[in-house]
Amino acid sequence: MRPRDLAAYLFLAIAWGLSFLLLLKVVAAFGWVGAVTFRCFIAAAILMVLARTTRRRLAFPQKWMPLAIVGATTVAGQLIGLSYATPLIGTAMAAIFVASIPLFSMVISRLWGLEPITPARVAGLTLGTIGLLMLVGFPAVPITTPFLLGCAAMLFSTFSAAFGSNYASRHLKETGPWEVTIGAFLAGGIIALPLLAVVPVPGVPQPIDYLYLVCLAGLMSSLTYVLYFGLVSSIGATRAISVEFAVTVVAVLIGALVLDEPLTLIQIAGGVVIIAGCALVLGLMPAKAKIPLQP
C-alpha cells in the first residue's frame, strides 16, 4: 500500500469511528430519515462548491445508472440502516456489525467472479457467521422487537455497503472519486427524500444541531467518501473496505468509554471472532492452504 493510500486509510478509520458520536445527535434532532437525506444533499453540495472554487474539472459518466445504484446501496442503504439501528442497539454494537462488511464483500466478489474462494476465506466466513450469532444472541440488554429490528437494519446496512463497493469497483473504476461521491450522494438523497413523508423531522432542531449535521456531512461524508472511493479504485473494494476493522475499534472504544454503553463478554468475544474471520478473508493472517476451492 502506498503512503498516500495508507494515510487515507488511517484518516477514514478515525473519522468514521468518531462519526458515531455526531450520528446520534443528528438522528435525535432530524430523525433517521432526515439525517440521511440532509446529510446526502449537503455532502454533495459541499463537494460541488469545492470543485467550483478550486476549478476542478468534473467528468461524470454518460450513464447515470451505475451512480444511482451506488447511491442506493453504499450511501442510502448503508446510512439508512445505520441511522435507524444505532439509537436502538447502541454505538458499540452497531460498530461491531460494521466489521462484518468485508465478509459480505467477499461473498459478493466470489459470486461476481472478482475474487476466488480459498480454504482460508471459507474458514473466515464461518468464523464471521459464528461471531454475528454471538453478537446478536447474547446481548447486554433484553432481546426486544426494537433490538431485533436494529440488528436487521445493521445487516441491511452492511450488505448494502459491501454490494455498493463491489459494484463501484466493477462498473465505475474509470470514474474519478469526486464524481462517484457527488453522484452517489445526490442519488442517495433523492432516494431517501420521499421517506420524509413517512418519518418526518421530529421537532425544531437547534442551531447546534445544524452544526453537527454540516460536520457529519462535510468532514465525515463528502471528504471521507472521496478518499474511500479513491481507495476502492487504487487497492480494490475488499482491501479498501477492510478499514471497517479499524472503524469498529475506534467506535467501540467511544461507545464503551464515552457513552458508557454495555457489552457482554460474549459480545466482545464475538467481535474478536468477526475481525479474525475478516482477517482470514482478506489474507491478513497466514494460511497454509493456497489452492482455491472448485466452485
Explain what you see.
The protein has eleven helices and no strands. It has one domain (3-281). Helix 1 (3-53) crosses helix 7 (177-192) and helix 3 (91-98) packs antiparallel against helix 10 (243-258). The chain is an all-alpha fold and 295 residues long. It has helices spanning 3-53, 65-89, 91-98, 101-111, 119-137, 145-171, 177-192, 207-235, 237-241, 243-258, 265-281. It starts with a helix and ends in a 14-residue tail after the last helix.
What are the key terms here?
globular; 76% helix; 11 helices; single chain; mainly alpha; 295 residues; disordered C terminus
Write the layout of secondary structure elements.
Elements: H1 3-53, H2 65-89, H3 91-98, H4 101-111, H5 119-137, H6 145-171, H7 177-192, H8 207-235, H9 237-241, H10 243-258, H11 265-281
In short:
With 295 residues, this protein is an all-alpha fold.
Give the helix/strand class.
mainly alpha
**Molecular shape:** globular
Largest sheet: none
Which range best describes the helical content: under 10%, 10-25%, 25-40%, 40-55%, 55-70% or over 70%?
over 70%
> Uncertain segments of ≥5 residues (pLDDT<50)?
287-295
Count the domains. Answer: 1
Through-space gap between termini: 30 Å
Evaluate the radius of gyration.
18 Å
What percent strand?
under 5%
Tally of individual helices: 11
Query: In sequence order, what are the helices and strands, one letter per element?
Result: HHHHHHHHHHH
State the total count of DSSP E strands.
0
Mean pLDDT level: 83
